[in-house]
Amino acid sequence: MQSALEKARVLVEALPYIKKFYGKTVVIKYGGHAMLNSELKQAVITDLVLMKFVGINPVVVHGGGPDITGMLKRLGIESQFVGGLRVTDSSTMEVVEMVLGKLNKEIVALINQLGGRGIGLSGKDANLITATKKLGKDQADIGFVGEVAKINPQLLKTVIDEGYIPVISPVGIGPEGETYNINGDTAAGALAAALQADKLIILTDVEGILADPKDKTSLISVIEAADIPSLIEQGIIQGGMIPKVECCVKAIQSGVTTTHILDGRVPHAILLEVFTDQGIGTMVK
Amino acid sequence: MQSALEKARVLVEALPYIKKFYGKTVVIKYGGHAMLNSELKQAVITDLVLMKFVGINPVVVHGGGPDITGMLKRLGIESQFVGGLRVTDSSTMEVVEMVLGKLNKEIVALINQLGGRGIGLSGKDANLITATKKLGKDQADIGFVGEVAKINPQLLKTVIDEGYIPVISPVGIGPEGETYNINGDTAAGALAAALQADKLIILTDVEGILADPKDKTSLISVIEAADIPSLIEQGIIQGGMIPKVECCVKAIQSGVTTTHILDGRVPHAILLEVFTDQGIGTMVK
Amino acid sequence: MQSALEKARVLVEALPYIKKFYGKTVVIKYGGHAMLNSELKQAVITDLVLMKFVGINPVVVHGGGPDITGMLKRLGIESQFVGGLRVTDSSTMEVVEMVLGKLNKEIVALINQLGGRGIGLSGKDANLITATKKLGKDQADIGFVGEVAKINPQLLKTVIDEGYIPVISPVGIGPEGETYNINGDTAAGALAAALQADKLIILTDVEGILADPKDKTSLISVIEAADIPSLIEQGIIQGGMIPKVECCVKAIQSGVTTTHILDGRVPHAILLEVFTDQGIGTMVK
Amino acid sequence: MQSALEKARVLVEALPYIKKFYGKTVVIKYGGHAMLNSELKQAVITDLVLMKFVGINPVVVHGGGPDITGMLKRLGIESQFVGGLRVTDSSTMEVVEMVLGKLNKEIVALINQLGGRGIGLSGKDANLITATKKLGKDQADIGFVGEVAKINPQLLKTVIDEGYIPVISPVGIGPEGETYNINGDTAAGALAAALQADKLIILTDVEGILADPKDKTSLISVIEAADIPSLIEQGIIQGGMIPKVECCVKAIQSGVTTTHILDGRVPHAILLEVFTDQGIGTMVK
Amino acid sequence: MQSALEKARVLVEALPYIKKFYGKTVVIKYGGHAMLNSELKQAVITDLVLMKFVGINPVVVHGGGPDITGMLKRLGIESQFVGGLRVTDSSTMEVVEMVLGKLNKEIVALINQLGGRGIGLSGKDANLITATKKLGKDQADIGFVGEVAKINPQLLKTVIDEGYIPVISPVGIGPEGETYNINGDTAAGALAAALQADKLIILTDVEGILADPKDKTSLISVIEAADIPSLIEQGIIQGGMIPKVECCVKAIQSGVTTTHILDGRVPHAILLEVFTDQGIGTMVK
Amino acid sequence: MQSALEKARVLVEALPYIKKFYGKTVVIKYGGHAMLNSELKQAVITDLVLMKFVGINPVVVHGGGPDITGMLKRLGIESQFVGGLRVTDSSTMEVVEMVLGKLNKEIVALINQLGGRGIGLSGKDANLITATKKLGKDQADIGFVGEVAKINPQLLKTVIDEGYIPVISPVGIGPEGETYNINGDTAAGALAAALQADKLIILTDVEGILADPKDKTSLISVIEAADIPSLIEQGIIQGGMIPKVECCVKAIQSGVTTTHILDGRVPHAILLEVFTDQGIGTMVK
């Protein structure tokens, strides 16, 4: 059992971080394992609520992965492939939006239960995320997959100032009112840039960037955005990590102070990153 | 072709109504035919946007009917019945919430396309609608069907004041974080009461209350809330109209000025009700 | 009798214009026939009140023509002429100011009766219009005729923001506290410029600018400010229309978006100009 | 020549009064000799501007006496008499309003010249003073003479808070939009009551209330409102002083702290009353 | 060394307390050992700064004990005694005020060094604490010892809202401008009442209230204000603890939610009391 | 005895000055004889309160001279000298701070008694004056004597806007939290610059700058900052006046409009300088 003094020490150690981030905005891409395991879920949401209470403004962008696949399967919707890429046709898009919407309100409800005040939005609300069609390789039509055209952050600013924690489904609205599926990391990065956030945190299912992908102890704690291209070239950053890291670089270039690729499988990874000196994941700055 | 003077006359005729409702809140239960037909849809949303621009604050609560049934069918979810009532089990509730969420954002997107600023919410956002379990006849367990426990209108007030049109899915949140399906008319009535709205408008697929249900020309234009019980007793108000009318009466008793059962099949029924002398539907006051 | 649907159509047609001018300022020079005929008067004021309610900010500058002449006659004040121009001596100026003041409050009272909130001002209030002496041809002294020296729009901004419709007598105050008669069109143009108004509307007793002054069907609907000088040279714009058009050009050069010379003899000319596609008068832009 | 120390003493003596009236409203009925003599005029307006700068909010209601009579004469309008009272017919009312309007702007211009920010209003502006017809003795019709029905002080509060000195013509607006002549003292009293003013000051052409009307040294400095009726009964207060005193009593009963009948022939009478111990005129409290 | 998870747990455990006290005011009487030992000093101030950052508003009232005695000695000022009580004569009072002033700014400087924004005040600033003379036993004159007459909390509210931590010397100002020494516990209690604080915390040099004064393990953790008198009667609460407890009771009766007698010798006692379940000291409620 | 008219004249003469300085900030260095004589003290404070009430914002920086010397003597603290300069060692600094603190609250109490709302601050409050160590001649260590490093005026702006008169002890806080004694004239000058004050007034015990130091009638009323260096060179400005004048020059260079060296032995010198044409002291501009 922990002594009073040890408790006091931990709280006191948090003080410089609380000071540093007071009034700042932190955009969190919430996805992967941390959305599936109910204990981790509870831990993530607790971290968000705690941040809000100590004066930091978290903004959540969530993914939907397995639930979307499950629902598509249950509905017997089979994906077409063009140039090796899954096509988001209109019935797929409908399922994506529905499942994201359900998950969105689940997160909101959990925030509210833990004492925060959550509000669930999609990119359609107040035209928060306008989008344009994205093409696949060789200009292939891959359906309703969109790129962020513009972020209209006014609504977010209003609800943040009023004390709410906004939770956002990465769905964009096209020029003709059509719905686009937006990559969650990309949406989070664009929102961080538009809000001039202090931090962008991407929760993943890996330790961070590893110098030797086979050695989990080879974590790179801090890396400059300028050094990323050569790491990709050398194959140190590879596969699914590449787009995540590119989101970070883009956010840094747009004025976000630091970006973080954290291991969402560690309970309270966000809290540890924000409030302690503990080295968690990789910081791209 | 219409002459300039006739146009001017119509606009001038709207002035007293614009004055009367300036700054007032109008809650609209949007459902039925008006949600299915794309021309009617366009007309309803246009009316909402127009209201907002001339200084009235519309708040929309929508239903989901046929889409929910369709999705349940596609997913092969069969409803159980207890005491003759359909039971909303957890997998049904999930579908209800997902479909409502999708429809919600569709309405929002249309508002935005027509020049308004819509924002889609459910009763879970900022605990807008807290709910308790509702029992069926003979205390039968009919699953996740809820009654409104409390409306927390603060978020609505904030977004209304900031110029947004809130669109609300009638989903409630229970004391343990469980999700409840709330009847749309009931939710609209409760919101109208909590917002001290000036008007509650329920869009239906009938002309209004008919003195002789078989005679469509026997529309009752205005009726006092106090006279409703005897009309129900006499069988003049019957079937699905009874709960709608009871919502109206409850809203009136809670301080809403007037309530309206309108024929949603008439294009621009809301606009005609609000801005002209034209007799549309039944007013319960 | 007009059908419900037609009424709805007119209101819906107004929506894009309401959106377009929402929160914008429109300065109206009110004079001529529209101030004499009581039905036209009622129509003009109704248009102003309607504009205010739908979020547009009208500012009225009025003339006084025949009433001033009448009162001068009743008082036996005869005008002197210098170089062919009527001299505004001090007793004439006193009459001008008194009559304008009376008309000003009449307009205000009518606005209030029709449900708006009018407030009557002259250029002396809060030094709204400061003026300097204007000379006639060959530097002739034509008395208390003034040019606008500076507009101090702060008071107007305050009362506009508080929901009032300001009605302004075109009287200016000189450096020594002396009173100057200012041309109404000029005052309206200067106010439109100072308020960075979206529109300047000058009500006249003609159809607008005619390509062939003898042919009333030869109305020029739209003309660029840059094209005005050559039209004057060609004699197409002539007589009393020249100073009006020059006010428009000056306002355009000072940042007013569009200016309009409307036929004040058409009932609701302002409303038709602002809220419909109907071609009324000449737009100088 | 006055020494520095004496100057300092006077300023220091003003301090308790400045403190006492800081942020308070003082309604001044401005009329009589003080409006005719240009030095007195300058002194009165200087006092108003000084008050405003040291944190007191003056509100001016002015009369028009001799100028109205003069203009009626010039226009050959002869007054009818009913039951011994002059009838204000519509052409008389028009002249009254015009002359008051001209005087109103003169006062405003002088305030602005002396460094204040004046704004001239009549009871018609924003329905400031609504009125009903007043009858003469034996219910005789005396034309457009009105009683104050209601003061709508919102506009005054706005302009006072924005730093302006409002100057008000005692003209009221009737239920049908008709114009009424209101007694200036009465209007000032009603405005003082509606604004919950701290002081009502009525400038007259006498020393105040004299215990012996023939002895100018018999000035009553302070009198309780409750003692007024017996003084009227005893004939000590008589003639034109009676309605003035009754205005004071009514204002006191409506919550105004003190009322003052001052001798407007004394330069800076207002300033001496407000900022020094000097006994000037009669205080009714 | 502590693991990341343990750190996270402590922070998470603080969340309910942060929520509970968010936006609340906590008045702390800072004195005794915790003011003398530099490590304890650092710990107390850290706790204050942390509280402020997580949304709680601390207000500090400090004592001066040994420093005052030391300075009186250095200056050779000997105390007189009347009825066994030390008399605060004017030269003593001067020393008290000077020493308190110096300690006050020391605390402020430490707050600022630790990242907070402190502001040091005495009861004289903006008449924060007005006082009247307090008499000793048998009405003996004990000099400039005062009782709180009135708290004027407006200045405190302003600086609290602007993000400052006010630090207050318990010096009061008498009706003639004379300076009074006020007991620090009493001043803290009166300020807590005037600010409607949520908590009053008195730092002492004992464990709290002991059921058996000889047994340090017999701490009474919670006690109702109503039960205090009988404890005093029974001699369980005795000596210097009596006035402290009476301050608590008075504060409770004036609307303060809970009061605490804490052991200031325990590092971070305030933080442990406010943010953990750890039982520290005695709560009087 | 003074007549009413003379009183009025003095008040009216103040008007242009009240207008001129309305809303402006005036920093006053209060020291010398004017702090010792109780009548002069009363006069100075009255002037400050009067200024505040008529819309000017006084900020006071005070000295402590003789009281500090007296207390050092009583405590038997002897000053060391390095290079002919008195060294402020830590025990001296403690006495300086204590005595300044006591004088500070005395001034505050007097302001409050005279109807103002004073608040006493030192440079430690909210880090108002941060300081660095100042060296003596030949880099000699003269102890805790500081130079102004930075003024953080936010707290001052807040309390000024809330209607308080700030009174400031010239004590600075060093980078390690150490306390520094700052020259009062220098502190006043730096505060005037940071607040962009309109005036800096330094109260001295001489008439001002004399052209012939032996001839008290040779007062230089106005002098340009640019002309100061040559006057120093010529020996016209000499001794203790040099640093005072240099403060003025520095303030002028930092944007303060005018600076004044006044004779604090003249009662109400500040008031006479600010509100009358009376030539008092020397203006450096």
Distance between the termini of chain A: 38 Å
Residue-averaged pLDDT of chain A: 93
Q: Which ranges of chain A are low-confidence, i.e. pLDDT below 50, for 5 or more consecutive residues?
A: none
Helical residues, percent of chain A: 40-55%
* CATH architecture grouping of chain A: 3-Layer(aba) Sandwich
Report on this model:
Chains A, B, C, D, E, F: One of its GO terms (cellular component) is cytoplasm. Chains A, B, C, D, E, F: Catalyzes the ATP-dependent phosphorylation of N-acetyl-L-glutamate. Chains A, B, C, D, E, F: Substrate binds at residues 64-65, 86, 181. The structure is a homohexamer of 285-residue chains. With 285 residues, the first copy, chain A, is of the alpha/beta class. Chain A is globular and about 60 Å long. In chain A, the strands form 4 sheets. In chain A, strands 5-8-2-1-11-13-14-12 form an 8-stranded mixed β-sheet, sandwiched between helices. Helix content of chain A is 41%, strand content 24%. The first copy, chain A, contains 10 helices and 14 strands. The termini of chain A are far apart. The model of chain A has no long low-confidence stretch (mean pLDDT 93). Chains in contact: A-B, A-E, B-C, C-D, D-F, E-F. The interface between A and E is medium-sized, with 35 and 34 residues.
